Fold each of these.
Amino acid sequence: MEYRVVCKNFEQLTAYELYDSLRLRHEVFVLEQNCMAPDMDNMDQHCHHLLLYGRDELLGYARLFAPGLHFPEMSLGRVVSSPNARGIGVGKQLMEEAMKELYRLYGDGPIRIAAQVYARLFYEKLGFVAEGEEYMLDGIQHIDMVRPPRN
């Protein structure tokens, strides 16, 4: 499948792109995962947003943080793939594109994420290493993971 990658800061997003991203986040985090924490947390305005489209449908989304905004390292969060696109490699493609954009925007430093524990193996296959103890965040078990600097 061919993908169209969009990476923009908040002000550059079209109304349609913003709606697509918030709809997908709501569909997965609120409805599917039953996470009742506020998704719109006043961080979107400070981030870059990566949207992965296939045939004009949003298949994946990630929010990109500059170093010092969420963690001391550059970071990404709200990583989500559409239920309609699971099992076909969209998650891996989304993460590869997100990391590529982080490196383009902020250099070759380490990337830190707060990963849902169930996805730990997925992130390990992408070069992330678990760091510290598991913790509860918004009703879901998480663990911090770091991908070493790119050489």
Amino acid sequence: MRTTASIGPGPSTGIEDSGPEGNERLTAVTGTILLVLFAAEGVTILGLNGLLYWHYFIGFLLAGPICVKIGSTGYRFLRYYTGNPAYVRKGPPMILLRVLGPVVMLTSCGVMATGIALGFGKSSRLAGLPMLLLHKGFFVLWAGAMTIHVLAYLWRLPRLVAADLPRTRAHRAASAVGGGGLRWALTFVGLAGGVVFAVLCAHLASSWQ
């Protein structure tokens, strides 16, 4: 009887363990892109009077990479809790990060949804809700949760991103993990989708001028 799918601890070998590693690399690449975009969005907050268009543009652009990251982390969650051997062997994040993960996801969606609603609603009140205040509230909650999230994972990003970059020492040293082309394609599609969304909708900032 074959026992290669045993869930016990031990070294990871073979194709069966490429899934979690590939998923982790996709999450890391997308997370790095999001960090850059979050920093740019933060700059626009410092001068909304003159940078409101770019605040909207970057905000809409974020939607694409955020969807990719939610998809990659959600896939890991699903595979782990449905008992996939490779993902079980990889193990879950620390308990604090497992609790914080849904908070980061929900507040990210809250900030995005209220920001989009403000643009399309052309008013600080939509369906009876103080949407602008709600947007700011979600942002405060998101900023706190995201700070902890970033500090926990930041040190791992350079290694994981470099491992998927061709012609780098880290890439040559990393164990062979299939699906690199698909990971970069998903990253590009998410980013391109965000750009298209931003180009089509950033003009909504004019309703707040």
Amino acid sequence: MDFILSIFFAIVGSAIGSFLNVCISRLPEGLSIIAPASRCPRCDHPIRYYDNIPIVSYLILKGRCRDCGENISLKYPVVELITALMALLLFWKFGLTLKYPVSFIFVCALIVITFIDLDHQIIPDRITLPGIPLFWLGAVFVMDVSWLDATLGLLIGGGCLYAIAVGYELITKREGMGGGDIKLLAMLGAFLGWQSLLFILLVSSLIGAATGIVLMIIKGRDMKYAVPFGPFLSVAAAAYLFIGPWVVNQFYGCYASSLCS
């Protein structure tokens, strides 16, 4: 039964991933995510229903539009695959409880934010601003996060990144972090609680530093790149959902033991 449900939720997740692709493409342009139906960006031909099967259609069409032969971005099946994988992993973690759909909606928001930030270097307020109160409510009433922990997460999450951004700008005389990152971390803190923030900032910084080093090696050591920070925050937040509380407990346990020794 669990195997059948796992397959079911993975398939549903891939279909939702197809919808997330629409959000990723249209939200930065201020377009409706409901209408018109999906179409090829080059020839503007509506995509047939049998060419809109998540992941499978991309493989059948060999990554090309059936009508004009234009290459279809690999981003589309990647988003569908990631969403399917997250739907599956969250089902394994939370099972058929209310925590499952709430955490899955949270992760879907992170997926959209990640790919929009990678494409356009922006984090849409249309996601983070309503997401802050909505995910605060989800945390308190569904995810067993206390209202105080969620509120402190919201305030500290937004406040600490704001302080870092101001300090960086004062020292370097250039902007190093946008307001979108600040609102994103406030949303993450509101949903995961203030205890998650150190984990998220540490893991996202490590991933960001590693990515920056790789880009410098590939592109040239003397070149500077504006690498969006939103995707790293999102990956770290998703990781916290699965292993963060255990890591934090291990850290505090080791720290308490060192104090007592």
